[in-house]
Amino acid sequence: MSEELVFHFDVDGEDFTSAGQASVQIKKILRRLGLSPEIIRRVSIAMYEGEINMVIHAGGGVADVRVFEDYIELVLKDKGPGISDINKAMQEGYSTATDTIRSLGFGAGMGLPNMKRYSDTMEINSVVGEGTEIKMRVNIR
Amino acid sequence: MKISTMKDLLDAEVLCCEENLGRHVYSACGCDLMSDVLAYVKDQAVLLTGLVNPQVIRTAEMMDMVCIVFVRSKLPTEEMLNLAKDSGIVIMQTKKRLYEACGILYSNGLVGNKAKNE
Question: Do A37 and B64 touch (CB under 8 A)?
């Protein structure tokens, strides 16, 4: 693979029930590419948590997935409120989600920690009032 | 344990993907918090939960799970069943509560996170 494969997804922020559609799609694409189940699971869970975050906190956003020879890169961008304290947001159990979101099984303060858990590297760039960009990399070998 | 054995033990009703009842599963988890399922569950094949919304199906799908048991007679929506059918995930419903359902399966040999699944 000399040229990387690029996949773009728009994440709709209006509808919580449809959150996860991009992750399901990327999972199918990675299966077709013949990647190992472990890698596919790590990428799709990281993406899924990212998607859920964009829907519950930022009114949606965009996700770009690039498949390189040695790694897969996920870039999630939103124009939401931004994260004021990234260290706090990275703590397991810390969440600013509403009770409604909690009643749906999310907002337990595990989203960002899970994304970090399943990726090999993760960078967060966030500006309060402007939005957040998260770049994750999952090594294939 | 075969999924069909789980069905008998839990006195459960199968709501979709009956054709996969012959599959074997070796571990399970009981949880209403999907982020915890995504964090701590590795190689689990069965999710027992009292939470009913489409994200339960998607979470199971992300984790490559093969069966979801809804406890306390909770009924999934048609939309959820369609999502499950797309992935071949067996959906069951039991009258038992989460604690009891997990206890029955555990004491019959379906443990937590020890064995690898098919």
Answer: yes
